[in-house]
Specification:
One of its GO terms (molecular function) is DNA-binding transcription factor activity. Helix content is about 30%, strand content about 35%. It is an alpha+beta fold. The protein folds into 2 domains: about 60 residues, Arc Repressor Mutant, subunit A (Orthogonal Bundle); about 170 residues, Chorismate lyase, CATH 3.40.1410.10. The strands form 3 sheets. Strands 4-5-6-9-8-7 form a 6-stranded antiparallel beta sheet. A two-stranded antiparallel ribbon has the order 1-2. Strands 3-10 form a two-stranded parallel ribbon. A hairpin with a 4-residue loop joins strand 8 and strand 9. Helix 2 crosses helix 3 and helix 6 packs across helix 7.
């Protein structure tokens, strides 16, 4: 490799950046190991590690201890307004949205669920656990809670929607099926944390990669809560844009 006044590690970083941009290394792909890159560029391992560290700082790759360096999926701008929907966001970006029903159950409301749904602690709520994706790439994994007393048919609606492989599962469509034709977000709380084993598995990410957890309350046209959701998003695949 020629020095020509430019640091060797920077030349390596620029070469890899170009190859990532040209899809020589596609999103999600594992880069060659540091020793292999050192041989390729004719430098020592520490020079390669500095270049990889720079690419990680730039958000182009993520380095997983003991596993290697992986190309980061380009973050999807996710508009977060009162009435913006998952499907609308992705269709607007020419991506195909998908949702998979992972589990469906009724359970007594905990303190946080009861507060989100404006029901009594211990009152039954229906929980639908959903995995959301864009063009087949997992983006979100979350638990969606509905007040069973107010929406007694919602569990069966989700069961049928989840079983119909010919149609894309839509929360908007499921709520419309039980008479909720308009709903909006009234509160959103976002925090960063590490994923648990189930979340990392479903999102196909490392346990060391952080997720963005959103706690959201949705109300109907009468300002009555119809859904409380706690959803985690892969932090490297989604960036939130607040539409004010």
């Amino acid at each position: 490799m020629q020095t020509d006044g430019v640091n060797l590690w920077r030349q390596i970083a620029e070469a890899l950046t170009q190859e990532i941009g040209e899809d020589v290394f596609a999103a999600g792909a594992r880069l060659p190991s540091a020793p292999d890159l050192a041989v390729r560029f004719g430098v020592n391992r520490h020079t390669v590690l500095r270049a990889l560290g720079h690419l990680q700082d730039e958000g182009l790759i993520r380095i997983e201890r003991g596993r290697g360096a992986y190309v980061v999926h380009k973050a999807i701008p996710y508009s977060m307004g009162a009435r913006t929907r998952f499907e609308e966001n992705l269709y607007g970006l020419n991506k195909v949205p998908g949702r998979t029903l992972i589990s469906l159950t009724d359970l007594p409301a905990s303190k946080s669920i009861a507060a989100g749904l404006a029901i009594q602690i211990g009152e039954e709520a229906t929980m639908a656990t959903l995995l959301g994706d864009a063009d087949g790439i997992p983006l979100s994994y979350g638990r969606n809670y509905f007040p069973k007393t107010r929406l007694p048919e919602i569990r069966e609606v989700f069961r049928q929607a989840g079983a119909d492989i010919e149609k894309r599962l839509s929360i908007t469509a499921c709520l419309a099926a039980v008479g909720i034709t308009d709903f909006r977000r009234t509160s959103v709380r976002i925090r960063s944390r590490q994923p648990n084993a189930e979340e990392a598995k479903r999102l196909q990410i490392s346990m060391t990669e952080s997720v963005l957890e959103l706690s959201v309350t949705n109300v109907d046209q009468n300002n009555v809560p119809v859904m409380y959701a706690v959803t985690c998003f892969s932090s490297s695949r989604v960036e939130f844009v607040m539409d004010m």
